[in-house]
Amino acid sequence: MEVKDNVDAQAAMQEEEKGKDAERARWYTDTILQSELADYSPVKGCMVIRPYGYALWEQIQKALDQMIKDTGHSNAYFPMFIPESFMTKEKEHVEGFAPECAVVTHGGGKKLEEPLIVRPTSETIINYMFAKWVQSWRDLPLLINQWANVVRWEMRTRLFLRTTEFLWQEGHTAHATEQEAEEEAQRMLGVYKDFAENWMALPVLTGEKTENERFAGAVRTYCIEALMRDAKALQAGTSHFLGQNFAKAFEIKFQSAEGGLEFAWQTSWGVSTRLVGAIILGHGDEKGLILPPKLAPIQVVIVPIYKTDEDKATVFERCQQIHDLLKPSVRVHFDKREQHTPGWKFNHWEQKGVPIRLNVGPKDVAGNVVEVARRDTGEKIRGVAMSGLENEVAGLLTAVQKNIFERAVAFRKENTRQLTEYGEFKSTMEEKYGFVEANWCGASSCEASIKEETKATIRVIPFDWQPQDGKCIRCGGASTKRVVFAKAY
Amino acid sequence: MEVKDNVDAQAAMQEEEKGKDAERARWYTDTILQSELADYSPVKGCMVIRPYGYALWEQIQKALDQMIKDTGHSNAYFPMFIPESFMTKEKEHVEGFAPECAVVTHGGGKKLEEPLIVRPTSETIINYMFAKWVQSWRDLPLLINQWANVVRWEMRTRLFLRTTEFLWQEGHTAHATEQEAEEEAQRMLGVYKDFAENWMALPVLTGEKTENERFAGAVRTYCIEALMRDAKALQAGTSHFLGQNFAKAFEIKFQSAEGGLEFAWQTSWGVSTRLVGAIILGHGDEKGLILPPKLAPIQVVIVPIYKTDEDKATVFERCQQIHDLLKPSVRVHFDKREQHTPGWKFNHWEQKGVPIRLNVGPKDVAGNVVEVARRDTGEKIRGVAMSGLENEVAGLLTAVQKNIFERAVAFRKENTRQLTEYGEFKSTMEEKYGFVEANWCGASSCEASIKEETKATIRVIPFDWQPQDGKCIRCGGASTKRVVFAKAY
User: Do B104 and A99 count as a contact with CB atoms less than 8 A apart?
Assistant: First the structure.
């Protein structure tokens, strides 16, 4: 396979070191390491997902897996090694992925006759199997999902956002008609939007990518696009309408109900451990993580406060009682460690983004109350009655989930600008970032110039926008295409 | 790395082609392909786990993951690439695994400075991280589990039982004392035994492996050993006491409570997709799979029986009603397909090993009853009343689970022999197979001769056996060691 150096990525790496971006990058890394979500590994570009980070990923998996099953898909597992010849069957696919491949050349002490690619994505191997399984229209639709690790050799990497190896789910489907496949691609984008907004508490734009940003081998790529708290955009998930490109490359043919022989229509779609990065950057503040209650591995932490041994006994007993009370309905943790002060624990659990903290001291025990601290607002509510505490906590968790979503919606609104003048566009991309809605003539050359001059890219061509007459923000040419630009991760 | 050809495996491959073993091998492969548990892939030695097989693996994962968490372990994820130099740090480990490694030599279009091994197991990379995380006795015990794919380059492979890439969980722990680590290794073996017997419905022997069969790098290897329906043994899980071998290789040192600097004591343990093979071979019969109800992806299937369109409407309505009734408590499927006859469906679901089938015809609807068919006994119970059907079904699922376990216990008993004479030992291993309890002098040479002459190996030195005076089955020398021999998968 032919390979080119990834010059763009190197340039981006240098750019990253400047000013507030550098500061934000440091905050991001420090937050991940200190909250013990992940750690650097001795393997270039690969990270270790530590128990706290993996527990968050497990919550993401659990909720999303159910949504994927509820829309009729079944999980399966395909080999992670792909014969090199498979990768070359779809022309655009190989051009897109060849530069990023890790290659196994030796196995069992011998040089392999044909090198194996470690999957960067599984269209090729899965569609080879689909061709074997699909004979008749009765075998369709074929709706498969896989949870797996994949490898893309990246020049510059960043914990969770872009790692050489990452974890993800990849859906692959085959349908009898173009319309069904198109509906499927959009349905799964809808699932991603639902998940992002209702579980991750992050509002997302949905729409189509431009040709430049399209998945290698797709006819159309749809995406969900979120805005982080530093006003940079993050692509959080993609869904591709593949047309018949892979079906033709791998000969996925079926006998139609009418008796003809036709190529299947296909989709693929995926989200990854990058979603953890989206949660960190989308909600976090100077104190550390702020986790959405629905996905937080620990939703409520109980911190005992005492000075004397006698107090300790009373307070521990009450904490244990609260723990046992909440346990059936809430992911609760009682921090019993004696080597740390309450103040240390407050910081510790704030950094880890636990939505609600219950502080319990001797006076609280005596008065049959607890003190409740909210991570999202910093608010402390004293004297919350023990009776009805489960309901109070459940209500607060819902309130936190709602509040951080609304805050993110408001932040996005504040940081979305409609611009018509390129000077203003450039200064916005230099200073304020955010989403910029502007007209674009549709030329790749304008898109490329804008990227070169401002580092901003077209994040998405929103679905629901009516054509709007105007002038291309770059060349001033006539344009009815309104798109969203941003600097992105 | 130095590599030797795997001559044993080649010999075994030839041996496999003969007589009843060949017949059994064909049954095994046909059953897997026809029940759609898995399929061959275009990648040598790798399989595709199809939705039905993956759903079974998901049930295994769900139950076992909870047991692993309940014993205090947390899940995490480590890179699948291991720098070659890591593998060589523990001398016995590299000798054991080097011949089986897949090696990545190129990434991003360039030759790597240091080749990367695709993990065959993760002791090396995980212990490198443990050394970073463990400083004080307060950091211990460190109890980590990982669900992952691993690669071992095998000469001959068989679906689920031995594939180049397979899925597994691998536990890795570090402790302050030898005793704690020893207890942990045995505790996790206990978890595996519990899981095998109470979920998979397969009785297992537990004990220690001989030095020859020990994990490369372990001080002691414990295992669970099951007997398949063809009277061959299957190692279903292992738990290793690693001593301080890896701690010394990777410098996992900690400050003890007394202030000294000590090396940690460690364990590792794992089970894999091989468990699916154990379920197939441990319970299946000439009709196909027999799945234990607690793990069956579909516990109850409903088959409508009708001739006229009018009957169809009534019967479908009742089937849907039963489906909705059972759904909250049971994994139930209503087979609505119209292109297949009831007879075809009976065979189909029997082959897939669904524990209970409900047949519903017009007369059943009229009489407010259903017909219940048990997969394990073939028994049909006519006229089971609709009222109380949930309880009836729940009771039957428990009964099936119990019955197939007891049947497996009885089968093992029938196929376990106490022998003292080598001639009889040889003929047993030629014709009847099964477990053979016999004395062994402890010499590797006798163990090797027996393997060469009969293909039988020492499966396990059981924990709970008292020394028993006798003579080595092979050399006649004095022996107090009673062990279990078998021909194994």
Answer: no
